[in-house]
Design a protein that fits this description.
421 residues, Aspartate Aminotransferase, domain 1, 2 domains, Aspartate Aminotransferase, domain 2, homodimer, alpha/beta, three-stranded antiparallel β-sheet
Chain lengths: 421, 421
Amino acid sequence: MEIQDLSREQLQERLAALTEKYNEYKSMGLKLDMSRGKPGADQLEITNDMLDPTFLGDFKTSNGFDVRNYGILDGIPECKKLFSEILDVAPENLIVFGNASLTIMYDYIAQCMIFGAGAEPWAAQKGIKFLCPVPGYDRHFSILEHFGIEMINIPTNENGPDMDKIDELIKDEKVKGIICVPMYSNPTGTTYSDETVRRFASLKPAAKDFRVIWDNAYCIHHINNNHDKLLNIFEACKETGNEDYFIEVTSTSKVTFPGAGISVLAASDANIRAVKSRMTIQTIGYDKINQLRHVNYLKDKAGVEAHMDKHAAILKPKFDAVLDAFEKNLAGKGIASWTNPNGGYFISLDVYEGCAIRTVALCKEAGVTLTGAGATYPYGKDPEDKNIRIAPTFPSRDELCKAVEILCLCVEISAIEKILG
Amino acid sequence: MEIQDLSREQLQERLAALTEKYNEYKSMGLKLDMSRGKPGADQLEITNDMLDPTFLGDFKTSNGFDVRNYGILDGIPECKKLFSEILDVAPENLIVFGNASLTIMYDYIAQCMIFGAGAEPWAAQKGIKFLCPVPGYDRHFSILEHFGIEMINIPTNENGPDMDKIDELIKDEKVKGIICVPMYSNPTGTTYSDETVRRFASLKPAAKDFRVIWDNAYCIHHINNNHDKLLNIFEACKETGNEDYFIEVTSTSKVTFPGAGISVLAASDANIRAVKSRMTIQTIGYDKINQLRHVNYLKDKAGVEAHMDKHAAILKPKFDAVLDAFEKNLAGKGIASWTNPNGGYFISLDVYEGCAIRTVALCKEAGVTLTGAGATYPYGKDPEDKNIRIAPTFPSRDELCKAVEILCLCVEISAIEKILG
């Protein structure tokens, strides 16, 4: 029965009952954190063996290079080969970086700001804009805001962003790009449909220095056996010749160790050349010991997949705990909807319109930290104040069950409060 | 007897004899490399034990943080403590970065270009300049050239750069900074005198957004027992209040593993705040597993010094081999002078004026690769064409002896050719 169908008295009664329950939780002095897409302690144990020096062998790469010394700017050959299998991109179109794909994205945009992307520096072209599929990843938006790039929201559905809207907006040559997570999106878990990827590959932007930051962070992060599939953007571009528009990144942050993994950029020949020419100035190369350690441990694509299955075995019960609680406490009430992703790190929860900030605040008071309301939108402003990103990975399953119970209470309380006015 | 005192006939005879010897070497098909400041294979072995996972213990930092997960932006506490001892700078004035101090410098200058250093972005202030003590480090010059910053040569002597000239030039508010290696300078091995450091601390630049990149790469890289001492720039600034002008960097690239070490920035409170505020956008933090591995292995300043003694034991015979050959083959001839450093990675050789390019080319033909002539000057232009950076560390001692023998021949041949005209 939908909440809206209840009478004012029924609503007030229900609010009183829920508030009593809420106050019980509040008095427990809990401290639960569902705010960050951070692996849990048990996930960290999976990769410990990689730190055994046997995985470094005689420190030599397949081309005879000693990883303990200077040299090799763009990644050791076996590491490129591994990512080549994972991303289905030729090794020569890959560069292996340091410990974070976030830094690759930051640096790439910084490069465009200072030196441009084949045209005038972005910084010199006043009033430039980026399109941001929403809800999206707060750290993407932070980078764009940091550089003073205006952000425009693009709504998304189960197939990805609204491509008609994108086609329309890129007629403005001030629109320089799009930043997105095409597979198991943060936070909705959406994987762009083949049709959406093909439309990306066929974009006709007015700006000749247009770039899509294709953050494929979760390309191998399935949480059940029903794997999504993402069409390879560079394959799709073979028909359109648009490969220079796309900068793809991924990393092993949530494969091996967050903060001590390796990251990679995939791009067209021309873009690889441009990035390498900056890198010769910016760095003496990245940590090749860590690259060799990763490759010898993970071996190949099959090895990576087997490793990811171990993560999935830990993650699935956590996602299920959240989804079961939502189903039990929120389904059919007309006050919330949520995603049920096949991979990634998040569940996207839409609460009753105008209630996200209040829900997060109520949770906070009861000791449950959620990602801030609005974080999934540019400038932290959710125009409907309804989206909350749920990160089920870091707490233990017991903590999670308690936290989500409280969350459901707060969702309903804030909805009733809203309806009562 | 000086070459210049020989008659034309004597010179021609000598040239013929030297050329004969040179041609013998040339026919050997040698392949010797003295071009890079790269540790030798034996130096890499010193640190292998650090890769043992026992140095990671239970993965916890001194404040109870798991280094295998996300978190801690500016370095784990014990790592800051270690660098605090080494640089004599408070932990809160340090940030631990990734594997290369070169990247810290690049990123810092990029930050000044895009966002400024407390004033208008450098990129928006057309025609900005940096002062470059010469001979200096080619990669410093490459960064400045990359960003389109005009470079002005500052001559140096055994006390450091010509401070009178610097005082004069910084009256121009377009002069935004200086980049230098204050201890065991690349390539001369000079350590700035206390007086020089105090004059740096007392600089009165017209530009309020003035910055000195104080690349203290070799602060612990002694090669004999006669250690140079560098006055602490931040101590010196305590009397002048100029601490905001200085950005100090160093790294363990030549302490542990080149490319797999850790780097650090030391700066004033205000500059640390500015850099951290960029870092919150740019990165999820650096490799903390590698930080913990380093600290647990090196332990403290005394541990680092003991470790550096092992490097010195390998390096001293190599430096001696070069210096002995110079003494034997070039001394008293009036065609070359060279430095005899107490630390660092280089010997700076000044050949007969106008002969550096020719010397390097002759060496190349005989299979000996040197750092390119001119590399020690901005834009690769040595105005007197006489400085050559000698990097004795990478070849084995036998290779080195052969290479330096050939180098001495080429120095003399090119000088005689020049005199003969």
